[in-house]
Amino acid sequence: MKVSAIELDSARKVYGHGASAMVALSDVDLSIGPGRFVSLIGPSGCGKSTLLRLVAGLETADGGSVRVHGVTPDQACAAKLIGFVPQTPALLPWRSVLGNVTLPQRINTAAARRRERIGDLGERGAGKAPPDMLELLRRAGLGEVVHRLPAQLSGGMQQRTAIVRAFGLQPDVMLMDEPFSALDEFTRETLQDQLLDLWDELKTTVLFITHSVQEAVRLSDTVVVMAPRPGRIVDVIDIDLPRPRNQRLFEQSSFHEYEDLIRDRLHRAWRSADAA
Amino acid sequence: MSIVPEQVAPEQAAPAQPAVAGPPAEPSRYSLKHPRSRIGWIRPAVWLPLVAMLAILGALWQWGAAKLPYLLPPLPSIGRSLSDDFGYYLKNAGITLGEAAAGLAISFVAAFVLAVLVSEVPVVRRAVMPIAVVLNVTPVVAIAPALVVAFGFGATPKLVITALICFFPILINTTTGLRSVPQQVLQVYRTMDASRLEMLAYVRVPNALPYLFAALRIVSPLSVIGAVVAELSASGSTGGLGTVISTASSMNNLAVVYASIFVLALMGVLVMLVITLAERRALHWHESSSSDRTK
Question: For the ABC transporter domain, which residue ranges apply (chain A) (predicted)?
Fold first, then answer.
């Protein structure tokens, strides 16, 4: 049997306790196959960030189980299966762009051995050479600024550096928490192009949180619609559009039909939450 | 102090800035924050106010010295004392500076190690911090005589007093720096399962450096104060400017007293200068030294 890259089985997360308890995630089931690009979308408070943090091992589930390639999130982190891109670039301001993206290779060097012992990843990652970070930076359009400090870069460049840092880990699962939300629309579209380009080459599983319906449809194989109070999954929509998805995609009517469909589901989720 | 902006300013985010190597646009050269550029000192508008102020203060001093000869020595007599006994002042300044530096070094090592422990182990924090706070609010001047009784007239009480006075600011600032790494940075390295040691070496300690230098700026004048207070408390000490001052004032030799004070002030300025230079080198990436960012 093929192991899912990400598997949530009635995962549950509650903040606080007693009468003030807030159910952030209520018995969520989700299974994501390897190499899929999956977006989470939903109004704020629907638990999408909580879900991501559970998978990243930054928080533990109060019930149910979370598995990454068949192991716990903590084991997945120990084997460096996970690449994490937070909302802010989270770069180290004293390290150059190159210094920032190469640091992960010096951290937790025992991870490669642990990774080989994880089920189906052993043979897949055998003899995996560390990537040429300079080449990755060039592909992300950062070739000219590799020796600059983060503070000398624009916001878009900083976020690209953060993405290259995560891809440089050659992660099996990429977790991205609204990485483009602070950028203007033009920069955002450029970064979407570059993200798809890198993903196309490295073919990792991506779990991507976004507020933007357009972004979700453009990037994803599957869009997961979530609703708040309690946080839950209300819809899973496969996006059946051809790749590569370039700017011409926006002219296609099927693209807009998907957008309308997801907007409709979001509104319904919103209304049901208000009624509750 | 966060370098990573929470929200990216729109003009920063715009990709209008072309990805071309070469010197970045340098608006800071014209900023008002750094009037101390090399050319600036040539202009009278820059140096004249200070020189005028010094002239006024000097004139007032001379006037006071003429009126109250028992309280203030005339400036020329201070200058003469300095130039006649230059070697004497230099030797005693060296002793005081040596005590201050050694005390500061001891304090630095101890406070840094404790700061790492305090920030890494909550139990240690709860045990140590209240004591550290009490120690900090206790005037060192009051402890000094007791320490002299305990450790004698040698170097030991001077080092202990100087170390005590420097300890708390270094501890507090370093602890703050180690703990003030932005949450999302920590999350990124936690998902790589970075060990505590890796987290310290690559993330926390570099993050604490600006805080550490801020502490050094506070503490370096304090270390000289500590050394002088210790010398004044131990009236039988063999050397140091504090001893010179207490001996000279008991003999009513005011010129020597003020000459020593002048040397102490000069020493403070020199120490500050050294720290500023070290800070520029170590923190070239930091906002506080953004004026010399061109490479």
Answer: 6-253
